[in-house]
Amino acid sequence: MTQSRRQFLKSSGALIISFSAAPWNALSAQDQGQFGTHPSHIDPGKLDSWLAVGSDGVATAYTGKCDFGQGIFTAQSQLVAEELCVPLARVKLIQCDTSITPDQGTTSGSQSTPTNFNSQSLALAAATAREALLNLAAKKLVEPAEQLTVANGVITGKTGRAVKYEELIGNRHFNLSLSPTAKRRSVAAWTVLGKPVPSLDRPALMTGQFEFVHNIRVPGMLHGRVVRPPEMGATLAHVDDQSVRNVRGLVKVVVRKDFVGVVAETQYAAAVAACQLAVQWNPGPELPPQQNFFDYLQKQPSRDVLGVDSGDVDAQLSSVGSVIRAKYTYPYQMHGSVGTSCAVADVKADSATVWSATQSAYPTRSIIAKLLNMPLDKIRVIFVRGSGCYGLNGADAVSFDAAILSQAVGKPVRLQFSRQDEMMWENLGAACVVEHRARLTKDGIAAWDREDWVASRGSRPGYNQPGNVITGMLLGYDPEPIEPRSAKAPAGKLRNGSNIVPSYFAGCVGGSCQGDGTIRSERALTHSVRSPFFTGPLRSPLRIQNTFANECFMDELCKLAKADPVAFRLQHLKNSRVIGVLKAAASASNWQARPSPRTDTSRAQTVTGRGIACVAYEGDNGYAALVAEVEVDLQTGTVRPKRFVAALDCGPISNPDGLRNQTEGGILQGMSRALVEEVIWDKKRITSVDWETYSSLYLDYEMPAVETVFVTPTDVPATGAGETAITLVPAVIGNAIFDATGVRLRDLPFTPARVKAALVEVEHRA
Amino acid sequence: MQEITLKVNGKRHVLKIDPETPLLFVLNDELGLCGPRFGCGMAQCGACTVIMRGQVVRSCVMPVSAVGQDEVTTLEGLGTLEQPHPIQQAFIEEGAAQCGFCLSGVILTAKATLDANPDASDQEIRDALGGVLCRCFVHSRMLRAIRKYAETRRA
Amino acid sequence: MRNRRLIASCLTVAAVTYVFFSLRIAVQAAGHAKSAPDVMSRDDAGAAAAFEAIVPVLHRPRCMNCHSNGDFPRQGDDSHRHTMQVHRGRDGHGLNAVRCSTCHQDHNLVGPRTPPGAPGWHLPSPAMPMIWEGLTDHQLCELFKDPQQNGHRTPAQIVEHMHTPLVLWGWSPGGGRTPIPTSQQEFLEKIQEWAEKGAACPVDASATIIPDAWVPIYADQFP
What we know:
heterotrimer; A: 766 residues; alpha+beta; Aldehyde Oxidoreductase, domain 4; seven-stranded mixed sheet; 20 helices; globular; B: 155 residues; Ubiquitin-like (UB roll); DNA polymerase, domain 1; 2 domains; two-stranded antiparallel sheet
C-alpha cells in the first residue's frame, strides 16, 4: 500500500517529481513557522511541493492543514481555485500525507487560515503558479503578460488567441521557488474565495458514503484493543495470557513495559479479550482530592511567566480608591469526541504506513519512528478524518498504539479506543484558578493585577515527546517537565497567546504599549503547575479560561463603577478592531445602556438578564464580542440561554457559510461547557468515563437563537476563527446570570446545584 | 460461530459469525458499511443507529443473532450520492454537519420518528433526539433540516 | 306478590351460586403449572401478611423504576429519571420510533454501563400504568388485584406474571445494579401464598410507609 509520491502522482495524472536525497536546505529551515515545523523531504520553498497541473487540466494542491469538520478542505480548495483561476471542480486537494504534502506542523491553534490564506505557503504558491503560467503564456502567445487575462484555466491574449494550462505545463514541473513578490488576487475580485460554497463533503456525509479513518480497511487487517491501567500512575505487575486463551480469534497479547494490548481476527474478539484479560497492576498514588483542588494548585511549585508588569501594581493596589478582588475557577473538561479515536497501522519489516486522524501528521510520523525504532523516512502517515477532535483528543495516542500492535504481529492492525479508554486518558482541557484584583477611581480603572495557576501535564507529543500522552507514559517516557522557575521581566514584544492579558491593559513591554487597552498600572502573571492528569489543547486552550476570568472581573468592576458594561469597556479600550466588534454586537443585540444587575425584576420564579464580553483572540488572531440573554429559574437554579448575538472580525472571510457554522457550533459547544461539563475524579482515578458520568448537552436541548454579524475589514490579513466565539461564552453567561439575579458565579460549570447554592447564600446574607 | 442471514439495505447476506457479535461490527467489518459508527458501545450516543421494523435500534448493543428476519436500514441505505433521500437532501441544503460522525443517529432517528408520526411536534422530535449526541453542536442547522424535511413530507 | 319475591330470591341465589361455581371452575382452569388459589381456604390475615412480606421487594428500585409516576421510567439505585428523554409512549414500549428495544436487549450485556435487558423490556401501557409510587400498602394491594388496572389479571395470573423473566430480572440485573436482596424463592412463595389465601389486602397503619430503599424523585438533573 505504500506509495511514493512519484507513483502517487503518476497515477493521478499529475507531474512526476524526482527528489534529491538531501532534504535539508536553508529555505526550509527558515520556513519553520509557529509550531517549529521541521524540514522534511518536501521543500516548502518550491512551487512543485504545493501545486501540480495535470494533462487533464486538474490542479492538484498539497496542503499540510487538514479538515476534521471545520471546513478547511473546502476553503483551501476555494483558495486554490481563486488564486490559480481554475474552476473549483478541477481542484484536487491532498491533505496531510507525509509522503507527498509539505510539513506544516499541526493543524490547530486557529493557525490554518493565517498560515495558508495570507501571503505564504499555499496562498503564495497558488499566486506564484498563476504568475508563472502567465509568463509561460506570454512567451507562447508572444504578447506581454500584462495584456493577458486568465479564467477557468485558460489564458487569453488581446488578440483572442488562448492557451490552456495543460498545454503550457501539463504533467511537467514548474521548477520554481515560491515568489515573495507574487501578488494575491484582490478581495474585491474574488469569484470563488469568500463565497459561501457548500462544504464539499456534505453529500458523502449525509448519504453515509464518507470514509472516516474508522472505515479504512487493509487486506489482511487484524483488530486491536488496548488495555489501560485502572488508575493514574499504576504500573504493570503481571499479565496472565492464559486468561484469554479461550477467546476464539485471538492472535496475540502484546506487552511492552506498561503498555498492554490485544490483537484478534475480529473486532468483537478483540473487545472480549480486552475485557477478559487478567492483568495485575501496582497501584498508583492517591490523587489530590477534587474538593479543594484549586487550593492545592495554588500551593504547588510552578514555572512562572510574566506577560506584562508595570512594576507598580502592588503600590497602586494599596492606595486610595475601591479595591476589589475575585477568584475564578475553571474545571478540567474533555474534548469528548463522539467517536472514539481510531487508527490503522501497517508495519512491515522495513516500512510502515499509518492512517491516522492526527492533527500533526509529521510529528506523529516522527514519534512513531522513535517508538518503533525505525528510520524516519520509512514511515508514512496519511491523515484520514476522525471524529471531530476540538484539539488533542486520542488521535495521536491511538496512532502510536496501533503502530506498536502492528509491529508486534507483523500484520496491519486497526485499533479503536473504548469509550473509557478515550475519556479516562484524555489530555484534558486544563483546570485553572485565576485571581484578579483592581482599583477603581472616579476616572476609571487605575490598576489591575491578575494571576493564574494552570494545571499542566504533557500536551501534544510534537516531534520527540511521546511521554506527553498516555501511550508514551506507558512505554516509559516522561512528559515534558515543568521546571519551577520564577518569572523574568517581560521583554521584547507583548505575548498574549493565552489571553492572560485582558483587553483593557495597555500591554506595555519593551518600551512600547502593544495591548488593546489603556490601563498602565498592570500585571499579568501565570504559574504552570504539574497536573495529576494529562492536559492538552482543548478548543480555545487557556484563552477560554483566562477570558472567562478577565471578562467576568471586568463586569464586576462595571458593577462597582455603576457603569454600563459596554460603555465602561469602551472607556478602557483603544484597539479599533476590539471596539468595532463590541459596538457591532451591542448594536445588533439592541443593547440598552444601563448598569448591571437589572433592578426591574419582580421576584418571579424566572428572571432574565443579559451579558456581554469581548476579546482579541491570542491578542491579534481574531476579534469577537458576544451578547447573551439568559433565563434563570430561581427555584431550580437552571440557567437557560435564550439568545446569543456574536460579532466577529477575522479579516477577509474565506467561506462565510463555513464561518457561520463554526461560530454557531463554537457558541453552542461553549454553552455546554459553561453549563454542564466537568471532569470528576475520586481518590484513584477519573470517574468521568462515559456520557452518564461526563455531562454534555444532547440534541434535545432547546437551542437558543444564535445571530452572527461579521465585521469584515479587507485591508488586513485573514485570521483564524474556529475558536474565537467559544472563548467568550462562559463569561457572557456568567455576566448574564449576574444581570438577572445580582449573584456573581465564579466557578464553572454553572450547574443548577451551583446556581441554587449561590442564590441561597446571597439570600442568607441579605 | 453460527451461520446467520441478514437483510441489509435490500440485500441478503449469509455470514459465519459469533452470534453475540454486535450488529455494528458486522455492518462495518463484514459488510463494509460506513454509515453506522462506533461512538461508545453502550447505547449512549446514537452514532451506531440503524432502522429496523420502523424504529431505531442502537446497533452497538444488539447481538447480530437478535436481528432475525427484520430488514436493517443504515444511513447509506436511505439514499445515494446521485439520489439522496429527501431528508438527506434537506441536511445537505442546510449544511447540517461539521465532522459528520453523528449523522446516522441524527438523520435516522428523525426520519423514523416522522415515519411513525408525521405530525410529530417539535417537542416530540427533540425528545426523540434526546439520546443523540452531536459534539460539534450543529444542533440549530440539524433541527432546521428536520423541520424542512417534515414540511416537504406533509406537502 | 310474596311468591314472586320468593321466586326472585331463589333465582338470585341460584344465579349467584351458579356464577360462584363457574368462577371457581374458571379460576381452577386458569391455574397453569402453579396450583390455583383455592378460594375455599381463604385466610384474610394470612394473605395480608403475605402481601406485607413482599412489599419491601416491590419498593426496591429494580421494581419501582418502572412503576413510578410520570410518562417515563427511572434508572439507577437513586431512581433518577431515565436519561435521554425516553418515554412510556402510547403502548408502554416507547414513543414514536425510539422504543425500549432501541437499546434494551433480551438479556443483560457484558461490559460496563451497557443497558440492562430481559425479554419484553417495557413499561406498563398508559391505559394501565401500574404506578405504585406514593401508594400505601393497602392501596398497592388493591391496585394489584384490580383487573381494570392490572392488565386484566386474576390473582393467579399475577403469580404467573411474577415468574416472567422481566420480573425475575430484578434479582439478576447485572452491570453494577443492586439486585433485590430478598430471596427470589421466598418472594415467589409469598406472592403465591397471598393469591391462594384469597388475596386479601393489609390494613394500613397510620402513615404511608416510605421505603428506605427508594428516595423521592428530585428535579430533572439536566438544565
